[in-house]
Amino acid sequence: MNYANNILETIGNTPMVKMNALVKGIDALVLAKYETFNPGNSVKDRMALKMIEDAEADGRLKPEGTIIEGTSGNTGMGLALVAIIKGYKLICVMADKQSKEKMDILRAVGAKVMVCPTNVEPDDPRSYYSVSKKLAEETPNSWYVNQYDNLSNTKAHYESTGPEIWEQTKGKVTHFVVGVGTGGTISGVGKYLKEQNPNVKVWGVDTYGSVFKKYHETGIFDENEIYSYITEGIGEDILPKNVDFSIIDGFTKVTDKDAAVYTQKLAKEEGMFLGNSAGAAIKGLLQLKEHFKKEDVVVVLFHDHGSRYVGKMFNDDWMRERGFLEEEISTAIDLVKNHIDKRLITVKTEELVSHAIERMRKFQISQIPVMDSEGFVGSVDESALFTAFLDDKNMGDTPIREIMKDPFPIVKSNTSLDEISGLIKKGNSAVLVELKNDSYHIITKYDVISHIK
Questions:
Q1: CA–CA dist 297, 29 (Å, integer)
Q2: Is 425 noted as a catalytic residue in this protein?
Q3: Active-site residue among 44, 86, 201, 312?
Q4: Whose CB has fewer CB within 10 Å in the chain, the N or C terminal residue?
């Protein structure tokens, strides 16, 4: 009989899959190292097991201890599986940008989850780095994993992922492309492959808001490069010890939008239901295509599974809200379809300025059409109200008709995007679109800007 003694014995030996639809413009053979076949559905299972085994061996992790780690979710899942089999407790500290699915999955396998704000400095006491360290200091019989600086992370990929790639390609691999977060995968795999063949090129995929690319190219840790980003699993605002920059030949950066769009493309065009970093990885590979020749064998590693992103990159409403959904926008009706179910907020000529302000605050809007019994006769926006209050602090009881501006232009539903943009460019803060049922909707500057690609 052929079986594993426990779930941990199924980690590794993941398949290599040829890429087809998305790489038609590349002459080289492109192969995906498909890590979702690990039991925790991610590449992180490998290093989770290795880090725990090494900590057990040298006494850092003791029987019935508590494992504590800051994680984007996948390392936490790998740690959870090992903790279950080996009898440890687990506390995972996560940043609030991580998907709800990741948090729910961790709780489902028995981990305690704590959530921290994303948009804070690494040394801020609220950051998930700081909270993880403090928990480890305060929790008896605990061990702080610290996947960023724990070199067992790199060792796991040097001992397993790298050799698998070499064997599966029969030593023909010429390029390795992977998203970089903690750095363990690129450093471990890269080190092994370059030991077998120093000519193998190792490319990292970075994201905007991360420091890796510039630091690799200049040696400068530029804090101005650090800002909040959406892409999950890659990029950092620190320099983890696991990132061995001497092994990496170069980086390419991928935008949040491209990472999200290509995550969907992988599912819809390759049948590969993968996570956000996979979208970044394949887009990064496409950006590097000029480096590949026909005889090359390019391996790209896909980290995790799409089930952890069904409420984000695989949700069209989420994508649309961020301007990531690739929709054809050409007419007025295209611009308003996202809020076509909402009624138009208006104000009457004899209502007071205070009423308009209250409505703007309640509905979080910046401009309102003004109506009388005949129809649209004027408009007010936040700039007009601001100017009015500068002139007279008691303007709240003034009728709207005394400060209103000209009415917004009215266009048909089939009016072109270019024509609408022209009207707004002429100084109109908004445009009204007339629909078939004699109702009206508003198109603002934001609606137009949000559809600029």
A1: 5
A2: no
A3: 44
A4: N
